[in-house]
Amino acid sequence: MVLGDFNHIELKIKAYLQMITYSTGTNRTLNKCYCEIRNAYAFKKLQPYVISDHDLIQLMPNYVQRCERINQPSLKGKIWSSAECEALQCAFETIDWSVILDESDSLELQTTVLTDHINYCVNQCAPNKIYVQYPNITPWISGALISIIKSRRHAIASSQSRGILRRKISHATREAKCQYAHQID
To answer: pLDDT, tens digit, for every residue of 127-180?
Structure first.
């Protein structure tokens, strides 16, 4: 890409295309942008800077990141915490299983009734969560790790000691990866 404030010069190389086609100054195109890729940038005309005799041009790339281009599927999952597990255990303890599982019914009917009632209890105790998982999200990153990384960024800005935070981040990263490995197993 070649950019410049050219008054009387035209770049005559076939590989480069002039991207700005409207006048930026007194009925002339003074600001020029030559690029090898057609439509690689979008241009926005801005007001002149202080006492300049021609307009400013803002270049914005037309490239869209891959994770933004692809429509990500929405995933649905349960939120399980200790409170939800206790509520489910309490719901199972209060059920009179002899009423649900009538001995006169067939085994297939008993299985259907039992699984339907278990699914009902699970849906009552644990709420559904809809989320989108992008391809660049690593699943082992936890909230604790994110807060440590943010505190490191603040320490860099305020020039505090970074060695301790770097060790905390590496330790928290190892722990998060181990926890994720145990979840998968």
So the answer is: 888 877 666 667 778 788 888 878 877 776 665 566 777 788 888 888 888 888
Residue with tokens 């005799």: 53
Q: Could you give the 3-state DSSP secondary structure of residue 178?
A: helix
Count, residues in the chain? 185
The CA distance from 88 to 127, in Å, is: 12
Q: Is the pTM of this model over 0.70?
A: no
**Interatomic CA distance for residues 179 and 184, integer angstroms:** 9
7-28 burial by CB neighbour count: b if 16+ within 10 A, else e?
Answer: eeeeeeeeeeeebbeeebeeee
55, 24 Cβ separation under 8 angstroms: yes
List the structure tokens of 114: 């039992």
Separation CA 86–CA 84 (nearest Å): 5
Selection from 113, 86, 5, 88 nearest residue 53 by Cα? 5
pLDDT digits (tens, 9 = 90+) for 138-149: 777 878 888 887
Q: How high is the pLDDT of residue 8?
A: 67
- Give the integer Cα–Cα distance in Å for 157 and 150: 11
